[in-house]
Structure formats: structure tokens, C-alpha cells
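Q: I'm building a small set of examples for a reading group on sequence design. Run inverse folding on the following structure and report the sequence directly after it, with nothing in between.
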């Protein structure tokens, strides 16, 4: 009996001890919680730790200790303690939410999402959890599901401005700029002092070309928080849109001074590239890449800027890396930057498809106005930023003047500057309507186009500076065409046709184009036979050329010059006594680097002569002092080739696989000068040397060029207009018949020529 009593006494003592510890732990916990609520985290932490000594299974102390670790940026510890608390109470949705938040801070959004979903199964009406789930989905780039989570949160708690701001910000990421505005408006209505919402709305308004409204929002945000780096970044973006370069640069500098690790380095680099300050652009791009090593498209952009400077350091290694990455679908280079790196068609297609899918995915356009019935005349819209004194305009002006207005109506949609120059005046005249859409959004231009009944929309820019691919992503017309401005595929499903010829895109190369190919009978490139050549007679002395000696010439942009081509040029200079190489003086650093490269190859740098830019008519006139235009590879001369041929200067080219590497070949075939087309570096150098050392042969070719100049199809804009109109008519006929776009061979149409 005594023994039983002792055992009962022991149990009673143990129970008393446990109860005492629990009571002490709860008292301590309440003290810790009071400190925690006052944000005295150090004191709260010590007390929670004491609680766990007294009661190791105390859920709230374990959980809130983890929360304190999260609040003090010790997220590994936060995960450890919150997970322990959940093992004690698996049904606590708040703990699961906090565990997810800790994983988000550790950049583990997938684990975060798992915990948010567990929490929602326990508490499906909790808007904070829906919002957090949206954050994790956004980090995982599952954007449509993230938007759904944010919208669920807003439905549960409609009066929280942060949720509406999240929705608007995500719509921005989805490039749904108009759709972003209602949510951002709501966020600002709920909290008129919400600086972040003003910045996001300003960013959306910039994309919608409402620059004045954007500036008001960004100025409001900056007045609320002068050290808001993102506000200064977007203010710089608005200034860049207005081409107020100094103010844009000032804003980017401010953003970076506030937050040196901010991505404004990229934007400042873009601005400096626009200003042709390539060395500074490279510095900023590399700074951005050091902050974020996976920064999209930057490696290709850095390499392109180096090529602008003729800086070929590690070119082969970087080019190979870019090409391999393109094959894996990595966003490593914009499509334009690939032209100078390779002539492989599949590389260009991969770059364009990746870029189109990322920046310009096809937009659902069922809400756009539809053409109710066929127009009496086919309505063709030309879309460009270059309706002024620009290379594209110099090629196309006579085409616009030659179009058949009895069968067609032609509309110009201009989203470039109105410089009020002579070319702008000339271009306005031939169009049925000339519409300035510079300050209209992509969608607004698409809606306007459909309302005007445009049947065929022709993109003259593609992925070049100031291009507006988004207009075509909104399907501005039933038939959409890629022509002239961009020498390659757009890789976009909404561009139906590309204008080419059988030199530019042989039938076996169609696989590298997302568009259906329209084969023009001669060359894809139209030319203006009204281009004036100045009567000014230059002396060799005033242009820095020797009085005697063969003049090899290449007026291509410097970024097109690659080491393999340059090596060949230097071998030619060595083989032809007294010869010189006449190049475009694009920028001082490129001049210096090219002279240095010549010296490294054993050639006197003074044998490189650099030509400054000058008005087109005088530039054409100075071609007379050159003997042979030697082309670049893999990116050929384009307008510069037709300039040379128009001025009577033979162009020797090397042809590859890509569109950009076959342009000069297309022009030469149209001029019936196939003897100037080569297909290897060895053949190119051999032919150049043959022409340089055989004056009679070169004279024969020049005489042939002179005969063909005014009789060949290349400089016959009226003939080209008839061919192009035949293509337009066939495209539109297929559309009306409900047929999908298909290859069109204009020659086979047996179209009646005037």
C-alpha cells in the first residue's frame, strides 16, 4: 500500500511540475509577445527562447521565434523554426504562410508555393495567402496563374490598395498596359499617397505613349519619395521617349546614385547606345550584368557595341557562346545583334522566335474592329519610323510615287519624328492618308488600322531601332508583311509574308523563315532612280586618297567588319602595291582600333583612309574616286551596296546562308553582274586581287555596270511597283478565299505589266 502511495505521490509531483512549467511558459510567452508587438525583437527573442526551455513543444513561441528570424533577415533560421512549429501544429495556416514567405526570401519560390497551397487548403478565404501565392507564381514566371491569385485576393479584400497594385504591376509584366490601368487607378483611389502605384501607372502610360500623363504620375511619386529609384528610372524612360537625352541621362544617374545595385545601369546603357557613346554603353551593360548575370539579351548587346568600336577581343569565344545559347532558347541576344555574328539561318530564326515570344507575343484581337466587307480598292498600310531623311525612305520614295492608285489605296502610319525635311514633304504627297501615330499606343494604332479598313499592313522596321512590332502583334490588318527594314525573319506567327527573291531566300532556306516567302522576279530591294548624285568633283587630295594607287572601298557600318574579312583586306593591301582601303569614319574609337589592327597585321595604318559622313548626294559623288567596293560578311552591304552601284562603283560580295549575307548578291544578280558574287573567303580574295591587278577586266565590269544601271530592273521602281502590287493582290485574294498564307512567286502570276 505504501508502495502504491509513493507512486501516486510521484505522479502527482510530476504533473504539478509540468503544469508549473506550462504556466511559467505561458506567462513568459505573453511577455515576449508584448515585446514583439512593440518591435523590441531582441528582448522578444530571448524570452521566446526561455519559453522553449520551459516548454519545448510550445507552438506559438517556436513559430514567432521563426518570425523574428525572418524579420531580422536570418531566413535559414526562420525556415528551421517555423518548420518545427508546423510539425507541432500542421493545421496552422498562418505558420504555413510565414514558412512560404521565408522560402521566398531565400529565392525558393517553388517551395514557397507548396506551403501557400497547403495554407489555402486550410484557409481558402485568406486574401493574404492568395496574394503571397501570386508572388510565388510570379517569381516562377507562371504569370496568368499569378494574376488569378491576385484577383482572388482582391475579391476577398477589395479595399486593400496593395493587392490592386500587384494586379496592375503583373499586367505590366504581361505587357497588357491598358489592362493595368484600372487596377492601378483603384490602388491610387484607395491610397492617394501610394507612390509605388503612381510609378507603375507611369510605366504603363509610357508604354501607351501617353508621356505627358506618365510624367505627372512619376513627378507625383518623386515628390512623395525623392529617393525612389524606380521613379527616377521611369522618368528617364519617359525622357528617352521624348528624345530629351540630357534629362533622361540625369534621371538614370539619379536612380543609380540612390541604389547602385539597381538595374538602371541597363537603361542608361540603352540611352548611351542611342547617343552612339558605345564605350560608356558597354560599361553600363557590364555593370548591369554584374548585378544580374542572367540579364536577358545583354551579352549580345555588349558584343554588338564592341563591334561598333571594332573591338574584336574574345569575339570568337563570345560569338560561339551566343550561338550555342540561342539553340537552347536562352534570351542571350536580340535578333539584330546576331546578323554580324553568323550567317546560319537557323540561328536567326531561333533568335527572332525567342524575342517575339518574349516581347511581342500575339495579342488576342477579337475585340478589334473587323472589316465588314471587301473594299473596292485594296488598302495597304506602310508602318515606319523612317518617313524622313533616312536610308529606307531613300530606297522607297519612288515606289510610293509609282503605286497604282486606281486599284489600291495607300496609307502611311508614321511613328517616327517629323523632322519637316525635304524627304518628309516628298513622302506625304503620294499617300491617300499620311497619319502621325507617334504618340499612340500599339493597340490604338491597330484599332485605328482596322477601323480604316487596312487590308494589308507592311512593317518597314522589324526589329530595328524604333520598331513597333506590338502593332502587328495586335493584328492591325488581316494580312501582315515583313519588308525591307529588317533583313531576316520576324519569327512571329502573326507576320504572314516576307518579301524576298530567289537569291535572298532559295527554296531550300524557307525552313528558316516563319513567314511565307513572296518571290519578286528580280531583287527584293526597291530603289529610287531619282536619287541625285552631286555634280561636285572631289579631288583625291581633299578626301585623303593617294593620287596613284588602287582604292578598295567599303562604306558599310563599322559593326559589320569582322576579323576574317579584315584579314583578307590586309592581305589584299599587301598584294597590291600602293593600294589603300577607304572606310567609313563611324566613330573615333573604331578608327583607332582599325588602324591598330592593320599595324598588327604588318600593314601601314596610313593605308586605311577614313571618310566622314556627308550629305547623300555628295557621298554618292565621292564613290567615283574608288575602284572596287569590297563587301563585308556575314552582314553584307544593303543600302550602301545599291548606293555604290547607282554611283557606278562595282561591288564585290561574299554570299552566305542568311538573308543579311545575301543582299548584295541579290542586287548584283538583278544588275546581271553575277561575276561579282563569291561564296567563300578564298574566292572573295582571289577575285578582288584579280580585279585589282587587271585594269582591263575591271574596266569591262564598270562599263557593263554603266550600261545596266538604267536598263536593269534594280533601279526600275515602276516595274517593281507592278510586281509588288501583284503580290499584294494575291495575298488579299487568298485571304478573301479563306486560304492560309502560302508561298507566292510573282513571276508565275503572269501579271500584266504596264
Amino acid at each position: 500500500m505504501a508502495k502504491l502511495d509513493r507512486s501516486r505521490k510521484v505522479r502527482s509531483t510530476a504533473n504539478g511540475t509540468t503544469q508549473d512549467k506550462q504556466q511559467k511558459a505561458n506567462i513568459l510567452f505573453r511577455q515576449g509577445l508584448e515585446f514583439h508587438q512593440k518591435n523590441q525583437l531582441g528582448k522578444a527573442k530571448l524570452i521566446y527562447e526561455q519559453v522553449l526551455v520551459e516548454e519545448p513543444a510550445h507552438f506559438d513561441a517556436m513559430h514567432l521565434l521563426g518570425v523574428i528570424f525572418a524579420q531580422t533577415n536570418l531566413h535559414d533560421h526562420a525556415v528551421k523554426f517555423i518548420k518545427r512549429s508546423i510539425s507541432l501544429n500542421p493545421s496552422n495556416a498562418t505558420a504555413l504562410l510565414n514558412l512560404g514567405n521565408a522560402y521566398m526570401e531565400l529565392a525558393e519560390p517553388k517551395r514557397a508555393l507548396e506551403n501557400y497551397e497547403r495554407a489555402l487548403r486550410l484557409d481558402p478565404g485568406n486574401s493574404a495567402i492568395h496574394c503571397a501565392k501570386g508572388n510565388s507564381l510570379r517569381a516562377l514566371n507562371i504569370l496568368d496563374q499569378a494574376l488569378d491569385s491576385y484577383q482572388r485576393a482582391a475579391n476577398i479584400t477589395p479595399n486593400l490598395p496593395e493587392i490592386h497594385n500587384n494586379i496592375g504591376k503583373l499586367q505590366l509584366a504581361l505587357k497588357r498596359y491598358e489592362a493595368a490601368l484600372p487596377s492601378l487607378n483603384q490602388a491610387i483611389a484607395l491610397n492617394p499617397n501610394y507612390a509605388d502605384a503612381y510609378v507603375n501607372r507611369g510605366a504603363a502610360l509610357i508604354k501607351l505613349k501617353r508621356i505627358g500623363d506618365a510624367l505627372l504620375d512619376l513627378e507625383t511619386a518623386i515628390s512623395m519619395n525623392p529617393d525612389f529609384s524606380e521613379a527616377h528610372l521611369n522618368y528617364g524612360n519617359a525622357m528617352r521617349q521624348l528624345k530629351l537625352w540630357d534629362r533622361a541621362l540625369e534621371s538614370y544617374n539619379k536612380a543609380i546614385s540612390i541604389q547602385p545595385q539597381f538595374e538602371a545601369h541597363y537603361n542608361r546603357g540603352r540611352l548611351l547606345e542611342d547617343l552612339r557613346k558605345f564605350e560608356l554603353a558597354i560599361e553600363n551593360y557590364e555593370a548591369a550584368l554584374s548585378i544580374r548575370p542572367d540579364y536577358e539579351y545583354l551579352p549580345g548587346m555588349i558584343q554588338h557595341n564592341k563591334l561598333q568600336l571594332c573591338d574584336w577581343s574574345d569575339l570568337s569565344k563570345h560569338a560561339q557562346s551566343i550561338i550555342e545559347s540561342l539553340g537552347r532558347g536562352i534570351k542571350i541576344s536580340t535578333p539584330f545583334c546576331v546578323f554580324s555574328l553568323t550567317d546560319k539561318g537557323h540561328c536567326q530564326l531561333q533568335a527572332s522566335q525567342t524575342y517575339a515570344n518574349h516581347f511581342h507575343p500575339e495579342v488576342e484581337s477579337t475585340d478589334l474592329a473587323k472589316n465588314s466587307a471587301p473594299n473596292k480598292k485594296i488598302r495597304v498600310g506602310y508602318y515606319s519610323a523612317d518617313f524622313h531623311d533616312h536610308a529606307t525612305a531613300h530606297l522607297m520614295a519612288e515606289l510610293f510615287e509609282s503605286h497604282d492608285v486606281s486599284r489600291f489605296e495607300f496609307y502611311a502610319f508614321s511613328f517616327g519624328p517629323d523632322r519637316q525635311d525635304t524627304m518628309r514633304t516628298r513622302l506625304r504627297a503620294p499617300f491617300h492618308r499620311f497619319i502621325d501615330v507617334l504618340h499612340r499606343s500599339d493597340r490604338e494604332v491597330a484599332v485605328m488600322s482596322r477601323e480604316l479598313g487596312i487590308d494589308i499592313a507592311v512593317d518597314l522596321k522589324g526589329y530595328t531601332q524604333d520598331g513597333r512590332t506590338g502593332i502587328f502583334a495586335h493584328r492591325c490588318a488581316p494580312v501582315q508583311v515583313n519588308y525591307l527594314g529588317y533583313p531576316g525573319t520576324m519569327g512571329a506567327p502573326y507576320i504572314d509574308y516576307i518579301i524576298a527573291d530567289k537569291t535572298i531566300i532559295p527554296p531550300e532556306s524557307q525552313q528558316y523563315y516563319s513567314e511565307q516567302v513572296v518571290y519578286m522576279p528580280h531583287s527584293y530591294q526597291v530603289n529610287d532612280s531619282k536619287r541625285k548624285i552631286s555634280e561636285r568633283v572631289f579631288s583625291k587630295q581633299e578626301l585623303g586618297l593617294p593620287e596613284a594607287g588602287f582604292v578598295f572601298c567599303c562604306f558599310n557600318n563599322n559593326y559589320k567588319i569582322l576579323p576574317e574579312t579584315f584579314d583578307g583586306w590586309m592581305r589584299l593591301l599587301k598584294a597590291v602595291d600602293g593600294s589603300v582601303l577607304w572606310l567609313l569614319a563611324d566613330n573615333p574609337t573604331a578608327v583607332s582600333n582599325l588602324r591598330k589592327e592593320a599595324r598588327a597585321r604588318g600593314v601601314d595604318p596610313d593605308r586605311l583612309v577614313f571618310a566622314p559622313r556627308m550629305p547623300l548626294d555628295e557621298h554618292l559623288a565621292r564613290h567615283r574616286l574608288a575602284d572596287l567596293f569590297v563587301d563585308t560578311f556575314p552582314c553584307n552591304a544593303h543600302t550602301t551596296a545599291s548606293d555604290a552601284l547607282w554611283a557606278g562603283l562595282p561591288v564585290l560580295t561574299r554570299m552566305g546562308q542568311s538573308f543579311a549575307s545575301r543582299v548584295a548578291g541579290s542586287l548584283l544578280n538583278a544588275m546581271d553582274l553575277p561575276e561579282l558574287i563569291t561564296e567563300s573567303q578564298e574566292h572573295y580574295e582571289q577575285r578582288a586581287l584579280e580585279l585589282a591587278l587587271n585594269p582591263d577586266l575591271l574596266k569591262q565590269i564598270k562599263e557593263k555596270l554603266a550600261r545596266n544601271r538604267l536598263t536593269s530592273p534594280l533601279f526600275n521602281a515602276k516595274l517593281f511597283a507592278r510586281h509588288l502590287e501583284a503580290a499584294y493582290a494575291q495575298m488579299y485574294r487568298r485571304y478573301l478565299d479563306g486560304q492560309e498564307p502560302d508561298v507566292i512567286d510573282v513571276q508565275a502570276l503572269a501579271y500584266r505589266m504596264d
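The chain has a mean pLDDT of 94.
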